[in-house]
Design goal:
The structure holds two protein chains of two kinds. Chain A is α+β, with helices and mostly antiparallel strands. Chain A has two domains: about 1-30; about 35-215, Tgt2/MlaC (Nuclear Transport Factor 2, Chain: A), CATH 3.10.450. Chain A contains eight helices and five strands; from the N terminus they run ααααααβββββαα. In chain A, a hairpin with a 2-residue loop joins strand 4 (about 175-180) and strand 5 (about 185). The longest helix of chain A has 23 residues, at about 1-25. By secondary structure, chain B is mainly alpha-helical. Chain B has one domain (about 70-265). Helix content of chain B is about 70%, strand content about 5%. Chain B has twelve helices and two strands. Chain B has helices at about 1-40, 45-55, 75-100, 105-120, 120-130, 135-150, 155-160, 170-175, 195-205, 215-235, 240-245, 250-265, and strands spanning about 185-190, 190-195. Chain B has a two-stranded antiparallel sheet. In chain B, helix 8 (about 170-175) crosses helix 9 (about 195-205). The two termini of chain B are about 40 Å apart. The chains are: A alpha+beta, B mainly alpha. The interface between A and B is large, with 42 and 37 residues.
Chain lengths: ~220, ~270
């Protein structure tokens, strides 16, 4: 009887240590890179849908609050600096670091504004997102891990393919650096719009976006 | 008779354009590759990181965004682009909104399915022309099931019950599949962004679409208008969103169209 009790104690101890060990382990050790990226994306997308569906923001007067809150949620898994850098292409290097962060701030607001405005007044309760596949792409020369996640968004009886390109810098979490909707890369599309404007000063770009947001 | 001659003339003109345009695009393409090399040689850490991240697409060394399509008819295209824009806001959108108001969503969706089903010959033939036998077979199955079991295509049991995929292929994609490049950018009245290749493709698809073979001209127009208005009524707001997001709408739509088509051809 005593022997059995001792055995029980030992097994409990082992179990406890094991549990502690698993809990203590960072999730990246337990999950492969592709599932990790997908989880970040799923949680992120769901957190934004929750904000957009929140009845507390249903009134038009909360429009700005709604945008700012969803934007702050988005910042956790979108790398808007990388979006801005990709969009500006060669122009980026003419920006001082202050101008870069200012541009990034307004550019992320522009993106948020447009997509929230599109979804405004439409119920997102029937939105259905299917995660089709996650592909790990070769890391960049500087060691940034990359993944491409294909999804299909089914809303209002229309299916739209949406691909997310995600990256993981050393010591950071997975973040989106480009979104492709029906094969059209958002960053690439802005990049083409800015491509021929190498003579414009950085302030002009910033001013232009500011005005665009105010519209 | 007159229409036949008209079609022949259009095909002839487009063919000549096509040849001329292809050569100019090659010249342009060469230039862009050269300038890209210079740009890659520059040692700028930031830019190297950028090329690292966005650089190696399925399109080789130059990124998909950086291989531009020539736009020699810019002023003409720009005028048509503005015309189409006004047409949308002043005519198409109000009509589609009115139509949306009086037509139940089930009917509009059914009509969308019906028109999709009716264009089966276009998809079937182009799948075969691209050697996509399995896709062609899926299209054929879908067509039979949806026509018989879905009330001439208003419902889509082939997709809902049998989970058969559809493969949207057109003649423009077939030409792209044969490695014929876009030629140059073209904005068509009423239709919108296109390229020389895709416009030629449209002529090919024209002969495969059932509306072409409706005997009465009035009925053809009526059916085509219904198709367009119905389609727009299901996507009101999309055009506005894309336009509002853009800093230069003309370039944004041009690039968006080119990117979308390249993805479709690559599939």
């Amino acid at each position: 009887m005593e022997k059995l009790l001792a055995f029980n104690k030992v097994s409990t101890a082992i179990f406890t240590i094991l549990t502690l060990f698993i809990v203590w382990l960072p999730p990246s050790v337990l999950l492969s890179a592709d599932t990790e990226a997908e989880i970040v994306l799923r949680n992120g997308v769901n957190s934004i849908i929750d904000v957009l569906n929140d009845p507390a923001f249903a009134d038009k007067s909360h429009k700005e609050a709604k945008r700012d809150i969803s934007l702050s949620k988005a910042e956790a898994f979108f790398d808007f600096k990388e979006f801005s850098r990709g969009a500006l292409g060669q122009n980026w290097r003419q920006f001082s670091s202050g101008q870069q962060s200012e541009f990034t701030k307004y550019f992320s607001q522009l993106i948020a504004n447009t997509y929230i405005a599109r979804l405004d007044g439409e119920s997102l309760n029937d939105i259905k997102i299917t995660y089709l596949k996650t592909e790990i792409i070769d890391a960049t020369k500087s060691g940034i891990e990359r993944a491409e996640i294909s999804t299909e968004v089914f809303h209002n009886k229309i299916a739209t393919p949406v691909h997310y390109r995600m990256m993981k810098k050393k010591g950071e979490s997975w973040k989106i650096y480009d979104v492709k909707i029906e094969g059209v890369s958002l960053v690439g599309n802005y990049r083409e719009q800015y491509r021929t404007r190498f003579n414009d000063p950085p302030d002009k770009f910033i001013q232009e976006i500011k005005e665009k947001i105010a519209q | 008779m007159i229409t036949k001659n008209y079609i022949r003339l259009t095909v002839a003109i487009l063919t000549v354009w096509f040849v001329v345009a292809s050569t100019t695009t090659w010249l342009f393409a060469d230039e862009s590759i050269k300038s890209d090399k210079v740009y890659n040689q520059e040692k700028d850490n930031d830019l190297n990181a950028l090329d690292d991240l966005y650089g190696d697409d399925e399109y080789g060394s130059t990124t998909s965004y950086d291989a531009p399509v020539a736009d020699p008819l810019y002023w003409f295209n720009y005028a048509i682009f503005s015309f189409n824009d006004k047409l949308y806001f002043w005519l198409l959108k109000p009509v589609a909104q009115g139509y949306k108001f009086i037509t139940p969503p089930q009917l509009r969706n059914g009509l969308k399915n019906f028109f999709h089903n009716a264009l089966f010959p276009v998809r079937f033939v182009n799948n075969i022309l691209q050697g996509k036998g399995e896709a062609a077979l899926c299209e054929a199955k879908s067509f039979v099931i949806n026509t018989v079991g879905g009330g001439v295509g208003f419902a889509t049991p082939a997709q809902y019950i049998f989970k058969i995929k559809t493969y949207n292929e057109d003649f423009g994609q077939t030409l792209g599949n044969y490695s014929i490049n876009e030629g140059f950018y073209l904005v068509l009245p009423l239709i919108g962004p296109s390229t020389l290749r895709d416009s030629v493709g449209r002529v090919g698809d024209f002969f495969l679409s059932p509306t072409t073979y409706i005997e009465s001209t009035e009925l053809t127009y009526a059916v085509s208008s219904l198709e367009v208005v119905n389609a727009v009524s299901l996507r009101i707001g999309d055009y506005e969103t894309l336009k509002d997001a853009a800093l230069d709408p003309y370039v944004a739509f041009k690039n968006g169209y080119i990117q979308m088509r390249r993805e479709q051809v690559a599939k």
